[in-house]
Design brief:
Oligomer: single chain
Radius of gyration: 29 Å
Strand content: 15-25%
Strand order of the largest sheet: 13-12-22-21-18-19
Number of helices: 9
Number of strands: 22
Length: about 450
């Protein structure tokens, strides 16, 4: 697809060349005879037997023109996501496929007059809108102000949703509702934030998205309640990851400072010795050297303490949801507390939620240990949020039994925390998290008996 920009008299256009489109097609007529907010108006031209589509971009600028000092304001990112979801809903009303939207960051325009983002609709484009949104989110991450934790939480929260296979776009909408101005934060005496959506459940909009992406209708109100807890959990985990990265950077800087100080102190001591030899032919006094040695000892001690701390796991503050309480209250949960387990012939794997199949964990023995200790762990997760001996897993038929081994940052099944020594059961598709590192359970059923 060849895309160029051109000014023709009083109008500016984005031009797509070599476009093979039936000008009498239903989609073309539907767009021309209806005003669909969010779409760039277009016309067909044939120049030298070359079919071209001219999209009018008067008063519009590209997203890259909104980037200042390498950063895109979060208000633009929120508006971008809001506009593309709203446009997808409206296209469904006219029986137009959202997959024909061009959501490439280089071809999305911001209307500086009406303050909305506008998209080009190309019949026959047929690129999965979910994948386009994921790529668009990845581009937005590059230009997000990473010094503002709330901005990072928002963008990475959307990215976490888009990396899922066949995700539901309504999840993005719910995530945006959580960060929207409509959500009021009431600070209670215990310093915990309780988010209350001042609007009603907005059922019509969510049902429209369900119909658009052929998702099964659900109880929006109850789903919103559970979604709020998941969003809050993800919010805290993202903030803890950022804090951990800042701590890592500080510790690295401190270690470099210590090494530099030790080197400088050693050089000063060497210069003192060389100076005395040059003047006297021998060491005249040991007092300056003693001071140098004491200073080097202190610097070495500080370096050792920093290195020791660097080797310990990082304690994170992750909000926990007790599975046993949920079971007692009658809420639907797939986490069950068990007392015993036995191994099965089924092939069970833990797939990283980031989609990296090369790091899949196959549970190939009973009492499979997961942790950071290279000698005692059957599978090693090299992260300080994971304890040296974090959890034990065991296969039983088509399920996986997980036991937390008094880990520092906890073991979670679908965001439900397991207490130290507590066992839980996970099934196909469940999410198991060791600290903030998550895996999805996949099970290949074998026909062999046990």
């Amino acid at each position: 697809m060849e895309v160029t920009c051109q000014t023709d008299g009083c109008h500016s256009y984005m031009i797509i060349r070599n476009a093979e489109i039936d000008t009498d097609a239903y989609e073309v007529n539907m767009i021309h005879h209806n005003s669909i907010d969010g779409l760039l108006s277009f016309e067909f031209r044939n120049i030298n037997e070359n079919n071209m589509i001219y999209y009018r971009i008067n008063g519009c600028v590209q997203i890259k023109q909104l980037i200042i000092n390498g950063e895109l304001e979060i208000r633009y990112i929120k508006l971008l996501m809001k506009n593309i979801i709203k446009l997808a809903e409206e296209l469904n009303l006219y029986m137009l496929s959202p997959d024909n939207l061009i959501a490439d960051i280089n071809h999305v325009y911001y209307d500086t007059i009406n303050h909305v983002f506008r998209f080009a609709y190309l019949p026959g484009y047929h690129k999965d809108i979910r994948k386009q949104i994921r790529v668009l989110t990845e581009e937005c991450i590059k230009f997000t102000n990473h010094r503002k934790h709330e901005d990072v939480d928002f963008v990475y929260g959307i990215y976490d949703i888009t990396v899922k296979q066949n995700y539901d776009i309504k999840e993005i909408s719910a995530h945006m509702d959580f960060y929207s101005p409509k959500a009021e934060c009431d600070i209670k005496n215990d310093n915990k934030a309780i988010y209350t959506d001042t609007a009603e459940c907005d059922i019509n909009r969510k049902l429209m998205i369900d119909a658009l992406f052929q998702a099964e209708p659900k109880d929006v109100c109850s789903e919103k309640k559970s979604g709020m807890a998941d969003d809050e959990n993800r919010h805290h985990q993202k903030r803890n990851i950022l804090n951990q990265e800042n701590n890592d950077n500080l510790q690295t800087a401190y270690k470099k400072i210590c090494i530099g100080s030790i080197v400088i102190t050693g050089m000063v001591g060497l210069l003192i010795v060389l100076g005395q030899f040059r003047r006297m032919g021998h060491i005249e006094t040991f007092k300056p050297l003693m001071g140098v040695l004491i200073l080097m000892s202190a610097e070495s001690f500080v370096y050792i303490q920093i290195s020791k701390k660097d080797g310990d796991e990082t304690k994170m503050e992750i909000p926990s949801y007790d599975c046993s309480n949920q079971c007692q209250s009658g809420e639907d949960t797939e986490t069950t507390i068990l007392k015993t387990g036995r191994q099965t012939g089924n092939k069970i794997k833990l797939m990283p939620c980031n989609g990296d199949a090369n790091h899949a964990v196959e549970i190939d023995k009973p009492d499979f240990i997961i942790g950071r200790d290279k000698e005692k762990s059957d599978y090693i997760i090299d992260s300080r949020v994971v304890s040296r001996i974090h959890a034990k897993v065991c296969a039983e038929q088509d399920t996986l039994i997980i036991e937390d081994l008094s880990s520092a940052n906890g073991t979670y099944i679908n965001n439900c925390i397991l207490k130290a020594g507590q066992k839980g059961m996970a099934k196909q598709g469940d999410i198991i998290s060791f600290g903030n590192i998550s895996y999805c359970v996949t099970i290949d059923n074998n026909e062999t008996g046990i």
